[in-house]
Write a structure and sequence with these properties.
The complex is a heterodimer. Chain A is mainly α. In chain A, 65% of the residues lie in helices and 0% in strands. Chain A has 13 helices and no strands. Chain A has helices at 35-43, 48-74, 99-111, 119-137, 144-164, 181-207, 212-227, 230-244, 253-279, 282-290, 295-325, 337-346, 355-385. By secondary structure, chain B is α/β, with parallel strands linked by helices. Chain B has two domains: 2-123 and 224-328, D-Maltodextrin-Binding Protein, domain 2; 126-221, D-Maltodextrin-Binding Protein, domain 2. In chain B, the strands form five sheets. Chain B has a five-stranded mixed beta sheet with strand order 10-9-11-8-12. The longest helix of chain B is centred in the N-terminal third of the chain and has 22 residues, at 2-23. Chain B starts with a helix and ends in a 29-residue tail after the last helix. Classes of the chains: A mainly alpha, B alpha/beta. Chains A and B meet through α3, α8 and α12 of A and α1, β2, β4, α4 and α7 of B.
């Protein structure tokens, strides 16, 4: 913005030369560099290649977004009692998403076959879980020391009693075969997420241990579990286990799947954490040893805080993958959200050409929302801890 | 060495417990307080949870009938959704007491898999769906047609057999999933769509204009669907087998959900025997005298179960066809109770 402040008046070079002693008023920046136009030029059209990319993106967006909006909102059917509402008719030549179907089946998507008079228990569970998550995740929440106890001890035990029931306090037992929909998805994902981090840290430490037996066991566990597809683990747990043990010993189907998923996620988490452990400089270990810290103190105060900090993006990545992998439990006949949608779309009461698409749109929106929330939280934590600033 | 022996002992005991509990299915069911039933969770009309999460369907009602016979309560059933892949393992391992999941009765399943088919509750077979506008009334008129079919199924093989046997030319258009095959048919890429007839009625509703399509009368393959139980428990095998015969007999004798309370006072000895007013046929099975009364009271006879789930009382509107009573030109024939 600086323009020359000296401009020649009389260039005679004599005594009477005119010297301007005040700044000339700044000229406005060239029109091409300011305002919306300038921003566009600087960011979107700075080079021919960049311009090409911009145009391609715009074209792609125009190709995708308007039909999507038209299908999901403008042409969508919002009211209706059965399939007739979502069929092409003279009054409605184009039919978009059949939200009437979603409204009719919403309760089924959320609770599955959970007995209707007992569904308040699921609601209480959802609220309790949400509050507990907020309590433990928000940095400015009060008494965060208690939040961890609440999350890892109180919440799981209360939830088990609440959801499966206890005759002692007058809650009717609800068989896990009746659980379904979002409830199952959330239960499976939370158990996987909560168990996999601590177990993964232990496995990672075990794999780097100097004790051969511990190292061997941890390495074997990680490699075997990681080398087997999740579907196989679930299938084994669900179908093969009852062949080997008498029916009385056979645990509940959902518990079998939960254990399978938790172990599977832990093996992956162990490798993520191990990468973080290796990123901590050797000097840190030596310095900690030099000031006399024992193994667990060294890990707890020096190594793990640094290791976990650098692995946040990878941990969240694993969590997101896990959250979506929970859909695989449908293989063993457990009705998670995706399976309830699959079931509902098969129902002749709502069978129309758009029913399946609508169902999958609901699933997409659900998973997208939850994964996006996880990503946002991870980004906030990263900013606060300043990951990557020093590296 | 001792430890090894102990382990072997435990394993042996476990095997004994397993086989013992498999042989006593009725007792296991009674002790558990509910019947564990392997069902299809995704086949409209046969096994599918509704908006409230209650299982509904033709096969589902067979499970409920068994529960009604044992407990006098059709709701004492735990449904286990099984896929085509894991259904037999689930039955073999004792995870379910009975498998009622539109399963075709074949010799290898009846022998090699260690299972018993108990009796055909639905005679299915492969059929064709075409556009009405095509003005085709028989599958034999489908020469040179393009036919949409799901890949890698017996359906695809049967199709080839049928056309070759009738010296007709055809073009298959195969797809990995039912949905894709159906969408292709709907968009006009094929003249006909083929799958099991019971499925045709269900998928027809997914088309843009279901009324523009008809299901042709020809059935080109045999798919007798039957409930299955494990080998080695004849009592349970008898119960499941006779539950079906009893339901068919009830229809033949015109005993329905609505009139069963009057019919039990009937003077017809056949009705008296069936409903348990005379004789102890239920007790011979290990159940109560009134076991058939319970089933019909809660669920109705064979015809009622059929019409409610897949027949005229349902969106599928499947005609009885082969599944009519033998007295009406069909194949459903209940063995006599005496």
């Amino acid at each position: 913005m600086s323009h020359s402040t000296v401009s020649g008046g009389a260039r005679g070079g004599g005594i009477g030369a005119f010297v301007r002693d005040e700044r000339a008023p700044a000229l406005p920046a060239p029109a091409a560099t300011i305002g919306g136009f300038g921003w566009l030029r600087a960011n979107l059209f700075s080079t021919p290649f960049n311009a090409l990319l911009t145009l391609a993106t715009v074209a792609l967006a125009l190709l995708i977004i308007p039909p999507l909006v038209r299908f999901l909102i403008i042409d969508a059917v919002w009211e209706g009692a059965d399939r007739d509402a979502c069929l092409v008719s003279e009054a409605r030549p184009v039919v978009g998403a059949c939200w009437a179907f979603a409204r009719d089946r919403l309760a089924y998507f959320v609770y599955g076959s959970f007995p209707i008079p007992e569904r308040w228990r699921v609601d209480v569970f959802f609220v309790f879980l949400a509050l507990s998550i907020i309590w433990i995740l928000r940095i400015d929440a009060p008494r965060r020391d208690l939040a961890a106890w609440n999350f890892f001890v109180v919440l799981p035990s209360v939830s088990i009693v609440l959801l499966s029931g206890a005759k002692l306090i007058g809650l009717a037992p609800v068989d896990t075969t009746l659980w379904g929909g979002v409830l199952v998805t959330i239960v499976v994902a939370s158990v996987g997420i909560v168990v996999s981090l601590p177990l993964g840290v232990l496995l990672a430490l075990g794999r780097r241990s100097t004790m051969p037996a511990v190292r061997l066991v941890c390495t074997l566990f990680i490699e075997i579990v990681r080398g087997v597809p999740l579907i196989t683990v679930l299938f084994m747990a669900s179908v093969m286990l009852p062949l080997f043990v008498p029916p009385v010993w056979t645990p509940d189907k959902l518990i079998r799947a939960l254990v399978g998923i938790a172990l599977f996620a832990s093996a992956y988490m162990a490798e993520v954490v191990r990468a973080g452990l290796q990123a901590v400089a050797r000097g840190q270990y030596e310095a900690a040893a030099a000031v006399g810290l024992g193994y667990w103190q060294l890990m707890r105060f020096i190594v793990l805080p640094q290791a976990l900090r650098v692995t946040i993006p990878n941990i969240v990545n694993s969590y997101i993958a896990l959250f979506k992998d929970t859909t695989l439990v449908f293989i063993v006949g457990i009705f998670d959200l995706l399976k309830t949608i699959e079931v509902a779309r098969a129902d002749p009461q709502w069978a129309t050409p758009v029913t399946s698409t609508t169902g999958y749109a609901i699933a997409a929106i659900f998973y997208l929302t939850f994964c996006y929330m996880m990503t946002r939280y991870a980004m906030r934590v990263e900013r606060r801890l300043g990951v990557g600033l020093g590296r | 060495m001792n430890r090894v022996l102990t382990l072997l002992g435990i394993a042996g005991a476990a095997i004994l417990i397993t086989s013992a509990s498999i042989a006593q299915t009725l007792n296991t069911v009674k002790t558990r307080g509910s019947l564990s039933c392997g069902a299809n969770g995704q086949l409209p009309g046969f096994g599918l949870p509704d908006a409230q999460g209650n299982w509904k369907g033709f096969d589902v009602d067979y499970c409920r009938a068994l529960a009604a016979a044992v407990f006098d309560d059709p709701n004492k059933v735990k449904f286990v959704a099984l896929t085509a892949k894991d259904r037999f393992t689930a039955l073999q391992s004792g995870d379910v007491d009975v498998l009622v999941r539109n399963t075709t009765w074949t010799s290898s399943r009846d022998t090699q898999l260690g299972l018993n088919a108990t009796g055909v509750n639905y005679f299915d077979g492969q059929g064709f769906m075409v556009r009405k506008a095509l003005k085709v009334n028989s599958a034999l008129e489908l020469n040179d047609a393009a036919i949409c079919v799901q890949q890698g199924t017996t359906t695809e093989l049967n199709l080839g057999d049928y056309f070759r046997a009738n010296r007709m030319r055809f073009k298959t258009v195969t797809f990995a999933s039912v949905d894709e095959a159906l969408a292709a048919y709907d968009s006009g890429r094929c003249d006909a769509y083929t799958t099991d007839a019971s499925g045709l009625y269900g998928v027809r509703l997914k088309l843009a204009k279901p009324d523009d399509h008809i299901v042709l009368p020809e059935i080109i393959s045999k798919e007798p669907l039957s409930p299955f139980v494990r080998h080695g428990d004849d009592q349970w095998f008898d119960i499941v087998k006779w539950a079906h015969f009893a339901l068919v007999n009830a229809e033949e004798l015109a005993i329905s959900k609505a009139n069963v309370d009057e019919q039990i006072k009937s003077i017809n000895p056949e009705i008296k025997r069936l409903l348990g007013a005379e004789g102890n046929f239920g007790e011979q099975l290990g159940l109560t005298k009134d076991w058939v009364y319970r089933m019909v009271k809660h669920l109705g006879n064979y015809g009622e179960i059929f019409e409610r789930n897949i027949g005229q009382g349902s969106p599928l509107k499947i005609t009885r066809g082969l599944n009519s009573l033998w007295t009406k030109g069909g194949l459903q024939y209940g063995m006599p109770l005496r």
